[in-house]
């Protein structure tokens, strides 16, 4: 933690852009989680990319089909239907599985715990950042209770918009420690 933070240039953002703030904090959370031995689980991203590729292929088929409009009407209607179905599937995955999550992980090597899901919120016109660490498999017997950190982003940034990584890493590391130390009691 100490040497990697000193070797990098400071992370600076525009404090008036809450999307940039959230993005930088989320990236930093991912770095902390990965430094703890968790590896990113990209299966859901790969599924989304596959569905997106299928959607693009359908659109290209519809565009470049050899027959012209009146003759290819049924083919176009089929393509439009498939396009709608695959887009709906993509939205379903986003809203049911991802929600506010930005990181899914596998458990650390040699561990009997589950992977993690990190999700965050930074409402518009608010300085309150909420980070939740939960189990990637909440129904597992080895899953822990979710833990939440809610704090003003002003505690982690200088007035010039530079992230004070040491403070932020310490808060995130404590949250991960809280998660790993708090076994399910129910």
Can you give keywords for this protein?
single chain, 186 residues, alpha+beta, five-stranded antiparallel beta sheet, 5 helices, 5 strands, globular
Provide a descriptive summary of the structure in words.
The chain is an alpha+beta fold and about 190 residues long. The protein is about 50% helix and about 15% strand. Strands 1-2-3-4-5 form a five-stranded antiparallel beta sheet, covered by helices on one side. Strand 3 and strand 4 (about 130-135) form a beta hairpin. It starts with a helix and ends in a 5-residue tail after the last helix. Residues about 1-5 have low confidence and may be disordered.
What is the share of helical residues?
A: 40-55%
Q: Which structural class do you get from the secondary structure elements?
A: alpha+beta
Low-confidence stretches: 1-6
Number of strands: 5
Beta content comes to 15-25%
Biggest beta sheet attributes: 5 strands, antiparallel
Q: How much is the average pLDDT? A: 83
N-to-C span: 34 Å
Helix/strand order = HHEHHEEEEH
Strand order of the largest sheet: 1-2-3-4-5
Shape: globular
> How large is the count of helical segments?
5
Any idea what the radius of gyration is? 21 Å
Walk me through the topology.
Elements: H1 2-7, H2 18-35, E1 39-40, H3 43-64, H4 73-98, E2 101-106, E3 116-121, E4 128-135, E5 147-152, H5 165-181
Antiparallel strand pairs: 1-2, 2-3, 3-4, 4-5
Question: How would you summarize what this structure contains?
Answer:
This protein is an alpha+beta fold.
């Amino acid at each position: 933690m100490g040497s990697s933070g000193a070797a990098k240039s400071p992370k600076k953002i525009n404090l008036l852009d809450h999307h940039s703030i959230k993005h930088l904090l989320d990236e930093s959370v991912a770095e902390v989680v990965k430094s703890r031995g968790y590896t990113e689980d990209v299966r859901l991203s790969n599924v989304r990319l596959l569905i997106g590729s299928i959607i693009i292929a359908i659109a290209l088929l519809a565009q470049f089909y050899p027959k012209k409009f009146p003759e290819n009407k049924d083919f176009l209607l089929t393509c439009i239907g498939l396009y709608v179905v695959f887009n709906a599937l993509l939205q379903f995955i986003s809203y049911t599985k991802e929600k506010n999550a930005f990181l899914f992980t596998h458990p650390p090597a040699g561990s009997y715990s589950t992977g993690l899901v990190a999700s965050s919120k930074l409402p518009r016109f608010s300085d309150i950042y909420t980070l939740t660490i939960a189990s990637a498999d909440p129904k597992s017997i080895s899953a822990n209770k979710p833990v939440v950190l809610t704090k003003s982003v002003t505690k982690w940034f200088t007035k010039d918009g530079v992230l004070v990584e040491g403070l932020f890493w310490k808060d995130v590391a404590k949250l991960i420690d809280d998660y790993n130390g708090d076994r399910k009691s129910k």
